[in-house]
Amino acid sequence: MFLTVDYSKCNKDGLCVLECPARIIEMQEEGPVGIDGADKICIRCGHCVAVCPEAALSLEFLSPESCQPIDENLRLDADHVEHFLKSRRSIRTYRKKSVPTAELERIIGIASSAPTGSNRQPVQWIIVHDKEKVQSVAAHVVDWMRFILENHPEVAANFNMELLIKSWEDGIDRICRDAPHLVFTFTSKEVGSGKADCDTALAYLELALPSFGIGSCWAGYVTGAVNQWPPLAKFLGIKDDEQIHGALMLGYPKFKYQRIPKRNKPMISYL
Q1: What is residue 209's predicted lDDT score, i.e. its pLDDT?
Q2: Angle at 11 (CA atoms; ends 8, 16), nearest 5 degrees
Q3: Which of 100, 125, 123 is nearest to 214 (CA)?
Q4: Which of 19, 55, 172, 239 could form a disulfide with 167 if both were Cys (CB 3.0 to 4.6 A apart)?
Q5: Span 145-166, pLDDT tens digits
Q6: Is the pTM of this model over 0.85?
């Protein structure tokens, strides 16, 4: 069966019914049961299995035993969260040391727990691990900027592209900042929530990296170029029906920050 309940454990608290986003569980006299066609409606989020305090409910694809238990001792308190988020910095200067691929894959595994629209989990990842290939990506971006400068000078002026091109020609990489690695997220163009899903996954990634001693910075010029410059999309292996939504440059930070700069007071409205 798609949904099974161990009624000897079930306390009939109804949490699984209340927490199911797809509303495929209903409470009957013996306890929770799946509605007709539940397997076709379920978004496979696992909320019902995760919320049950008695580990009484299982799905065809997910059992309580297959889930990692939540350790309350590992939860961050409010002060730790505030300090962690405020102290995170965008890193643009990196050590000449590669991050092991196993480490990157572990962190991307963490970032892949980011929420996605209807739990479709459409986000795909590209790791540009070789430094020479990172420089090739930057070179493609500079070629794109030269095209923009020649054909759309007003756009180039808005983004200071002429200065960026000159820096590149002078041996200064302001595109990828001499980062050892790049990470891209992409989805099929058919995924309506693709940009939000990819941005959220990259945000999870950049927040997970500091705990591994790794820094990152959003690669805005690269993201801007990749969907407008076919040679770069081809270099990355992106198909016509796919779209890259974001990129991070990352590596081990060369320097350590000592304090938290002030930020503007948030602008808040209430309705």
Answers
A1: 98
A2: 110
A3: 100
A4: 172
A5: 999 999 999 999 999 999 999 9
A6: yes
Q: Which amino acid is at 124?
A: Q
pLDDT score for 190: 97
Residue 246, strand partner residues: 185
Residue 68 to residue 87: CA distance in whole angstroms: 29
Both tokens of 94, joined, read 């990196």
Task: Please give the pLDDT value at position 1.
Answer: 83
Type of residue at 58: S
User: Residue 116 CB: number of other CB atoms within 10 A?
Assistant: 22
Instruction: Provide the total of helices (H) and of strands (E) in the chain, helices listed first.
Output: 11, 8
Residues of the chain with pLDDT under 70: none
Residue written as token pair 């496979």: 44
Give the separation between CA 42 and CA 33, rounded to whole angstroms: 13
- Cβ pair 176, 134 in contact under 8 A: yes
Measured distance CA(15)–CA(52) in Å, rounded: 7
The rounded distance, in Å, linking the Cα atoms of 241 and 219 is 22
